Amino acid sequence: SLLLPAESFAQGEHARRAAAELRLVLGDAQQLANRTGLSKLHAAGLRSRVSGSLSGLALLLRLADQEFGRKAPQAQGTVQYMRSLHQGGNWAGLVSISQDLARSYPLIMPEMSAGRKRAKAIHDDLCAACHDEPDLEVERPAYNLYEQANAQDETEFLARLIIGVRGDRVTGYSNPLTSPELKALLDYYRRAKP
Q: pTM above the 0.90 mark?
């Protein structure tokens, strides 16, 4: 079985990234399955992003399993199955398998926050230029973060922060924000007005 109790996990960087990618696949597949108010352009962007997430997911899950000190013999086959669901446009099936897998690889929410002042500074420095006035005429728009945080499940929004924020050469292009900073952003967007 793919399901393991959430308490059995410690969360390293690979586990966090794998869990976040799974949440993105789940959220995007839910939007594709629902299709309410989804333009053809944005649907193409979601399909493209799901494809990108699935391309590296098997490796991420294997690395996460190493952090957990366990083997997941079904993960490789599960990701292959997810790819076939994606290729066939079976979004409801992809939602279902993503939900199961997300329970095996939970995204642990940070408990400590870096504070509202730090969150505002991060938003102003790193986020505002693209997200405050998003270009909705592209496949994958950088949506307004205030609206997104209040429209999405807390865990999905956190996953989008983890995957969406890219670092630079110094950070190896990984998310440079600490867990308390991510928590601060989540709290900030949920409580602040743009």
A: no
148-163 per-position pLDDT tens digit: 899 888 899 999 888 8
Match 């399909």 to its residue by tokens: 47
Q: What is the DSSP letter of 124?
A: I
Residue 145 reports pLDDT greater than 60: yes
Amino acid at 177: L
Q: With pLDDT > 90 as the criterion, what percentage of the chain qualifies? A: 40
Q: How far apart are CA 112 and CA 30, in angstroms?
A: 30
φ/ψ of 137, rounded to 5, equals -100, 20
Helix orientation angle between 13-34 and 91-104, rounded to the nearest 10 degrees: 160
Does residue 77 carry a pLDDT above 80? yes
Max distance between CA atoms of the chain, in angstroms, equals 46
Neighbours of 93 (CB within 10 A): 17
Token pair belonging to 150: 């209040």
pLDDT bin (cut points 50, 70, 90) of residue 169 is: low
* Helical residues (DSSP H) of 9-74, grouped into ranges: 13-34, 40-68
- Establish how many alpha carbons lie within 13 A of residue 191's alpha carbon, considering only the half-sphere containing its beta carbon: 11
Which are the contacts of 36, defined by CB distance < 8 A and separation ≥ 6? none
Residue 166: CB atoms within 10 Å? 11
Q: Could you count the other beta carbons within 10 Å of the beta carbon of residue 53? A: 23
